[in-house]
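Deviation from plan, reported transparently: magnesium ion complex.
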Amino acid sequence: MKTLILSSDDEDIKKAAEIIMHGGIAAMPTETVYGLAADALNGNAVRKIFKAKGRPMDNPLIVHISDISQIYPLVRDFPEKAAILAEKFWPGPLTIILPKSDIIPVEVSAELNTVAIRFPSHKTAQKLISMSSPLAAPSANLSGSPSPTSFRHVLEDMNGRIDAVIDGGDCEVGVESTVITLAAEIPTLLRPGGITVEQLETAIGKIQISSAVTNPLAEGEKAESPGMKYRHYSPKAKVILLDGGNDAFYRYINKITDKDTAVLCYSEDIEHINLPYIPIGKRYDYDEQAHLLFTALRKADEMGFAAVYAHCPEKKGVGLAVYNRIIRAAGFNIIRLEGTENK
Ligand code: TXA
Ligand code: MG
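Because the crystal trials were delayed, the predicted structure below was used instead.
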């Protein structure tokens, strides 16, 4: 199939909306990562997303809205805590899981009785939704690879596999939305992102953090979020996370003699290491790290590295999202060194 390349002009967004309303699929920019969108109420269209991505059918999709009133037909219940979160963080990088209504096709919810809803702040995404329908959209990458944060990344993975792609430049946040479920007894964070645990707790009080945010699922354990089961965000290069203090990190790195090996590191590390490096921003600038991470992982492949050793991020604020993506990109291949993080 030929993929139609579209700009973010209203005319072009309208073309994408028409494609979607005729049951097609189109990639759209959002403030987090690019999404691959279909009409969320058209099960056959939604199936095309799974095919284009090579995504397992038991992994449910997020439904994107562009106006709060669109949520009511989609959910069975809209509890007070959801209203508070929506008021504070929408539009923005937060996904809320709620009990689903009967109009959600089984392809979207993957047979769960809940649905994930997000109201993105990106103007192009909002216009596309307003001109079409609530949109089911996972990240617009091939299943398993790093999420696309630029138009070029989308083309790399999806050219020829989808009907259209809208060029919206680079995504601001760079990691996917925070996912919280309010369908559980205690509000539970399933995926960290641009909205932090601290921000969520200020709004609605104590929340639980799913152990899968920082740990692999135990053998036979049921995933609270099916996406937790699968390999994720992985470049072709092997990723290894080094968890320990700065000195131990530099000692370990500077002993490596393997060819085709690079280091994913902070700008402050550069002067201390003798291997090729791919920087992901300053040590304490978690927003910058989130913004650069997926581009850096893709760069490792473009530069032909076979292995990438990553300096462990701090597990705080948006840093928790960066940590969560790197441990998955590394397939939980973590080497513990002396000291903790930067100390
Ligand atoms: O920022 C984002 O959220 C991006 C942009 C495009 O909006 N979308 C995104 O979608 O990251 P995706 O499909 O790549 O990740 C959605 C995650 C998956 O891990 C999925 O398993 C989980 O959310 N999820 C979706 N619906 C769920 C539900 N009803 N219950 C539990 N987890 C759910
Ligand atoms: Mg994804």
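Residues 30, 32-33, 35, 59-62, 93, 95, 97, 109, 112, 114-116, 118, 137-139, 176-177, 179, 190, 225-227 surround threonylcarbamoyladenylate (ligand 1) (CB under 6 Å). We consider this an acceptable substitute for the interim report.
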